[in-house]
């Protein structure tokens, strides 16, 4: 039998000890590691995905919003409109918001009360309103809120326990309900907010001329003669048609044509926006020969009493007679008119008149 060298014996003993030690460590790990240990996530942090802290609110209930000198907020009512909203804009002007073709107006009425033992400031930055549409588009308040029946913004110091009612307007999509309103402190964007579910709680439009279901606004309205409709800083009504012959002032009809005047009346509503001129009139007429013609929009908006171009302002509360002149075949007459306010790319609803 061959004998091992002493160094070989030492090496074998060392390997045996290491193997035994490794077995003990493995055995200990098996005993101390639970079989049903929960799986941990990746630990990745995604920024901007968490909602602001807050709660869901209800109409008619008070909520204290903000930090420091607090104010109590109570959403009293909400309604849809498609005609116009008059209030004060961000630069202190009395403004007329007439919604575009793809918009309607959400009107909010709410109360604010001072819960503090001392006077507390109430101003347009006290609260911030954000409306979230069904397609996750955000809309914010257009006016500085006004108190009571005023249409002018007023900043004030609320006395302890004093309560006032305010009105705010937000332009929202013309189609469908807006499902969510978020109310938060105007300065502290990290303070808790109140979220309102608006579905089924907003008063619908009652006039079927604007909406058949009270929610979705019509693109074209069946308009009535001698009735005012929102335009810009003015209201406009159509009163009828008057034939003018081949010439009227500086206007001349082409061979085989005649000039006709669409008789209008404008009423001043707000000083801003206030300019009334031919460039904002999109007009299409249908004549008795079955043709549809777009009225030439150049120097054809005249005063009602003389052949003078009107391009100016109708003062608030005043009325101005106007004529929108068109050229049609001398043997034809106008049967209907479609009138649309246009301002560059902004297009509002169309008023359709039978004449």
Named CATH topology of the largest domain: Immunoglobulin-like
Q: Report Rg.
A: 35 Å
- Just give the CATH class of the largest domain: Mainly Beta
Choose one word for the global shape.
Answer: elongated
Poorly predicted regions are 1-50
Number of strands: 28
Distance between the termini: 129 Å
How much of the sequence is in beta strands? 35-45%
Q: How many separate structural domains?
A: 2
What descriptive keywords fit this protein?
about 350 residues, mainly beta, Immunoglobulin-like, 2 domains, 5-stranded mixed β-sheet, 5-stranded antiparallel β-sheet, 1 helix, about 45% strand, disordered N terminus
What are the SSEs and their pairings?
Layout: H1 6-32, E1 54-57, E2 62-65, E3 71-81, E4 85-88, E5 94-97, E6 103-113, E7 120-122, E8 127-132, E9 138-140, E10 146-147, E11 156-158, E12 163-173, E13 180-185, E14 193-197, E15 220-222, E16 229-230, E17 234-245, E18 247-248, E19 251-252, E20 257-268, E21 275-276, E22 281-287, E23 292-294, E24 301-303, E25 312-313, E26 319-329, E27 334-343, E28 346-354
Parallel strand pairs: 1-14, 15-28
Antiparallel strand pairs: 2-3, 3-6, 4-5, 6-12, 7-11, 8-9, 8-13, 10-12, 13-14, 16-17, 17-20, 18-19, 20-26, 21-25, 22-23, 22-27, 24-26, 27-28
Can you walk me through this structure?
The structure is a single chain. The chain has 355 residues and is mainly beta. It has two domains: 54-197, Immunoglobulin-like (Sandwich); 220-354, Immunoglobulin-like. Helix content is 8%, strand content 44%. It is built from one helix and 28 strands. The protein has one helix spanning 6-32, and strands at residues 54-57, 62-65, 71-81, 85-88, 94-97, 103-113, 120-122, 127-132, 138-140, 146-147, 156-158, 163-173, 180-185, 193-197, 220-222, 229-230, 234-245, 247-248, 251-252, 257-268, 275-276, 281-287, 292-294, 301-303, 312-313, 319-329, 334-343, 346-354. It has a five-stranded mixed β-sheet, with no helix packed on it. A five-stranded antiparallel β-sheet has the order 2-3-6-12-10, with no helix packed on it. The longest helix is centred in the N-terminal third of the chain and has 27 residues, at 6-32. The termini are far apart. Mean pLDDT is 86; it is low at 1-50.
């Amino acid at each position: 039998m061959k004998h091992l060298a002493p160094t070989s014996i030492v090496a074998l003993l060392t390997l045996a000890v290491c193997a035994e030690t490794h077995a003990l460590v493995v055995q200990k790990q098996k005993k101390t590691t639970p079989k049903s240990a929960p799986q941990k996530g990746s630990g990745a942090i995604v920024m901007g995905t968490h909602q602001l802290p807050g709660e869901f609110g209800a109409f008619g209930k008070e909520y204290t919003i903000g930090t420091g000198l607090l104010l109590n907020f109570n959403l009293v009512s909400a309604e849809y409109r498609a005609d116009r909203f008059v209030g004060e804009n961000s630069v202190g002007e009395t403004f007329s918001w007439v919604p575009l073709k793809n918009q309607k107006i959400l009107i909010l009425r709410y109360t604010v009360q001072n819960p503090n033992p001392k006077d507390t400031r109430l101003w347009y930055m006290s609260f911030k309103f954000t409306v979230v549409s069904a397609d996750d588009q955000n809309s914010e308040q257009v006016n500085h809120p006004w108190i009571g029946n005023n249409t002018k913004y007023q900043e004030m110091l609320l006395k302890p326990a004093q309560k006032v009612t305010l009105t705010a307007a937000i332009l929202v999509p013309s189609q469908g309900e807006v499902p969510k309103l978020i109310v938060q402190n105007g300065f502290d964007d990290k303070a808790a907010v109140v979220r309102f579910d608006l579905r089924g709680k907003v008063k619908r439009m009652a006039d079927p001329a604007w909406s058949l279901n009270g929610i979705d606004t019509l693109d074209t309205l069946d308009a009535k003669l001698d009735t005012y409709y929102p335009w810009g800083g003015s209201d406009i009504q159509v009163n009828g048609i008057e034939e003018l012959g081949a010439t009227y002032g500086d206007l001349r009809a082409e061979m085989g044509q005649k000039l006709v005047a669409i008789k209008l009346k404008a009423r001043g509503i707000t000083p801003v926006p206030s300019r009334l001129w031919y460039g904002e009139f999109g007009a299409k007429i249908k004549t008795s020969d079955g043709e549809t013609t777009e009225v030439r929009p150049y120097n054809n908006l005249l005063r009602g009493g003389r052949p003078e171009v009107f391009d100016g302002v109708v003062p608030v509360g005043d009325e101005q007679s106007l004529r929108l002149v068109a050229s049609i075949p001398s043997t034809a007459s106008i049967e209907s008119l479609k009138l649309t306010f246009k301002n560059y790319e902004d297009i509002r609803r169309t008023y359709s008149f039978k004449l």
